[in-house]
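Dear colleague,

Thank you for sharing your sequence with our group. We've completed the structure prediction you requested, and as agreed, I am returning the results in plain text so they can be pasted directly into your records. Please verify that the sequence below matches your submission; if there's any discrepancy, let me know and we will rerun it promptly.
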Amino acid sequence: MTITHRMSKSPEHRSWMAARSRCNNPNNNRYYLYGARGIRCDMTFEAFFADLGPKPTPKHTVDRKRTEGNYEKGNIRWATPSEQQRNKRVRLGDYSRWPRVKRGPKRPRILPRSESPVKGIRQRPPRGVVRPLEERLEIQRAKAANKKAGNRTSSSRFTGVSWRSDRKHWRAHITVNGKTRHLGQFREEVDAAAAYDVAALEYFGKLAVLNLSGKECTLNGETISTVMEG
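Please find the predicted structure tokens below.
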């Protein structure tokens, strides 16, 4: 009477069978990663179990210590998924096991808008807080200077003017006490800029930052002057 190991339904036996199949069976869907590369598994189950012992946990699987070696005594172990990931061969385009390059100094932390020391940046104040008039005018001057320097932040070269692509017209608007006021829609960009200047003179007076300062233009059929009176 032949005495068998009586472990054919054990997880250790299933792991041994899976290793033999991917190494020795060309019909296995993972054969190209094992048998086709010359990796063999010629161990008997008795030798396999004697070398590894019982499976520590259901998460452990068979791992080869040398990834190019065979399933043989001294080269197999039980390993967790994370240990398996750290013991992978280097493939084309896989840089996980390459030596780490020393990085340069870290970039400086970008300050929140409320902490930014740079003047003229459009910092959003806390909800319910209205900017002081001097601060709002400083922001408008910075925007105007950026546009004159060619650093456009919107679709228009003028302050308070934007292009509505859905309606194909220029829109003029001005912000007063934290609220945006709509000034109208215009076919010409210069007309929208003039409308902004008229509203800026009305709300801010001599402190207004104008788009067409010192020029005369036509708005709604009337000639207006943007020269601030002394």
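Summary note from our side: The longest helix spans residues 133-148.

Kind regards,
the structure core
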